[in-house]
Amino acid sequence: MLKVEKLTKMFGGLAAVHDVSVEFEARKINAIIGPNGAGKSTFFNLISGLRKPTSGRILIDGHDVSRLRCDRVARLGVGRTFQTTHLFEQATVLDNLIVGHRLRTRSGLWDVLINSSRLQREERECREKAREALDFVGLAHLENRVVLDISQEERKRVAFALALATEPKLVLLDEPAAGVNPEETEGLARLIRKMAEHGLTVCLIEHKMDMIMGLADKIMVLNYGEKIAEGTPAEIKANPAVIEAYLGSDHDAAA
Amino acid sequence: MRRFASLFTHPAARWVLLALALGFPFVASSEYQVYVMATAFIWAIAVYGLNIITGYCGQLNLAHGGFFAVGAYALAILTSDHGWNFWPAFLAAGLVSAALGAAVGVVSLRLKEHYFAIFTLCVGFIIYLLIDKWEALTHGAIGIRGIAAPDGFGLVDFSQTRPFYYLALGFLVLAIWFAGRLASSLLGRTFMAIRNGDALAQSLGIDLMRNKVLAFVLSTTYAGVAGALYASMIRFIGPEEANPNHTFDMITYLLIGGFGTLFGPLAGTVGVVWITQSLQFLEDYRMVIFGPLIVVLVIFMPRGVVGTFLGWKLRKDAEAARADARPGVDGMSGTEVKPHA
User: Is residue A32 in some structural domain?
Assistant: First the structure.
């Protein structure tokens, strides 16, 4: 599904991502972990096209997307969330989600001027898609609530819904459980699993280890921009390089 | 309170507003008042343009006054120096502003946030300098006189204040109508997604450059049309029309009315123009009242008069809807409440 070959991103002389190759299978939940500054968010930005790689290739279902602009990549089926999603707070939840399906529509200025039947049809489709996505994340009852009035966890779900409204094949979730309590984290984990069950390939960055270990099919560990390990949660837990990266090299000596 | 507020958002409120505008010349105490109102309408059209790029699309354009002057000068040069009839010249003025907007937009919109604002501030100033110095084309500081009034085809004489007032009103209604249609359409939502953040908009598959340039061109077209109307009303223009101060006046109108709202530009422009008029007797001291008034408004109504009102109403409506829906949606608490019934 997603294949990354020798991906490198340099910022000046600093390699934020260095020579990373990895393959993520379709319909699986893949996690990227690593200490702060390990290059996880840069990795996401490269895949989603927000930044261009210095070298290397990114293949989605065999298409090379590494040189494509972000909006083109999104059209090919990559949806994403950010650590903080800036929603339009003074509008309702549904109003925020309608634009999510915009990339699958074609209406332009002329359609607006003459209020064409195409525009009307596409607006209806966008609205339906937004409702569908909102229903999927379990917030159908919040449709008409103002974003300002909903909780942090609900905002996270709205951000998921926005990404889902783009009809992605691959979703990139950047710290989906940051800033929510343990119970809510559990709920979000169930939602992520539901995404995979519905045929989506999920890729997430997360710091909450309990959540990752119980959720991920495959974990990739980054440290200083380099891949230091990949495997199942059990393999990662037992990997000495990972333990060293997280706890420091004098861990054994101290123990 | 909420019911009273609903009167303003009721669809019929627009027709009442239109009726008031149509009746205004009959209740105005002097022709001067009608003239001031027509001027306010013309500025409001330009502010609607600013609202598209800055209010909906979130890009602070500080060249707006410049494009207003470009429209004014295009009409003035074509009718006065080249003897064009009004309507073809008017159409050309709109097209010139749109074309110049496209050229400036493609370059300036590569910049983000305050860099874009600074760049457009410079563009506005360059337009002013060109108009002031390019004497062969613009007659420099002497200005242009003998600008054609709108051609009424022998039916109406638009060089009279009242007929012109209705013409300006007609264009304003058209401007609001299109802005309203735009704002509620997918295209308007696309602009607003860009306002919420470039990165998020891109990740939703929105082509940033294309949409920003489109919003920019729409805004400069509005400015050019307003400028052309302005030139044909006052019939004499000079480089002062391109003074960058006008841009900041328009931003003030929009700030007070409410960025990104449909009736903010109208409320802000007409409101401020009349406040300024009624403080004329204070001469330069009017700023002593006007300045603090703006400060108070910005502190207590950061989203402008219309924006703050709509935000308040949206939440009140949502609360009311929740209160109505509670027994139905939340079955558990519904049964618990039963013993009281």
Answer: yes
Closest Cβ–Cβ partner in B188, B200, B204 for A103:
B204
With respect to residue A82, please indicate whether it lies within any of the assigned structural domains: no
Contacts B318 to A, Cβ<8 Å: 92, 144-146, 149
Residue B314 is nearest to which of A70, A100, A146, comparing CB atoms? A146
What pLDDT score was predicted for residue B278?
A: 86
Q: What residues of chain A lie within 8 A of the CB of B181, using their CB? A: 112-113, 115
> How many helices and strands, by DSSP H and E, does chain A display?
11, 10
Q: What is the ipTM of this complex?
A: 0.91
B155 vs B202: which has the higher pLDDT: B202
Give per-residue pLDDT as tens, B28-71.
889 999 999 999 999 999 999 999 999 999 999 999 999 999 99
| Residue spans of beta strands (DSSP E) within chain B | 144-145, 236-237
Instruction: Tokens for B279, please give them.
Output: 């403080």
pLDDT band, residue B331 (cuts 50/70/90): very low
Q: Which of B110, B196, B204, B210 to mutate to test the interface with A (most CBs of A within 10 A)?
A: B204
Please state whether beta strands B144-145 and A226-231 pair in parallel, antiparallel, or not at all (unpaired): unpaired
Residues of chain A positioned with their CB less than 8 A from the CB of B182:
112
pLDDT band of residue B329 (cuts 50, 70, 90) is very low
Q: How many domains does chain A have?
A: 2
On the CB side of B21, how many CA atoms lie within 13 Å of its CA? 23
What's the CA gap between A88 and B103, in Å, rounded?
30
* Among candidates A69, A71, A88 on the partner chain, residue whose Cβ is nearest the Cβ of B192: A88
Same domain, A73 and A179: yes
In a domain, A254, yes or no: yes
Chain B interface includes A76 (CB < 8 A): no
**pLDDT above 90 as % of chain A:** 81
**What does the pLDDT read at residue B276?**
86
Q: Are residues A172 and A162 in the same domain?
A: no
Q: How many CB atoms sit inside 10 A of residue B142's CB?
A: 10
pLDDT attached to residue B340 = 40
Same domain, A50 and A158: no
Range of the domain at A134: 89-166
Task: Check B181 against A79: CB less than 8 A apart.
Answer: no
Task: Measure CB to CB from residue B202 to each of A70, A87, A100 and give the nearest one.
Answer: A70
Kindly give, in sequence order, each residue whose CB lies less than 8 Å from that of residue B277, ignoring residues fewer than 6 positions away: B36
| Position B338 pLDDT exceeds 60 | no
Which residue do the tokens 């449709």 mark?
A: A143
Question: Which CATH number belongs to the domain containing residue A203 in this structure?
Answer: 3.40.50.300
Is A83 part of a structural domain of the chain? no
Please answer yes or no on whether B204 and A99 come within 8 Å at the CB atom.
yes
Q: Considering the entire predicted model, what is its pTM? A: 0.91
Q: Write down which residue in A133, A166, A199 finishes a domain.
A: A166
Domain ranges for chain B, please list them: 30-244
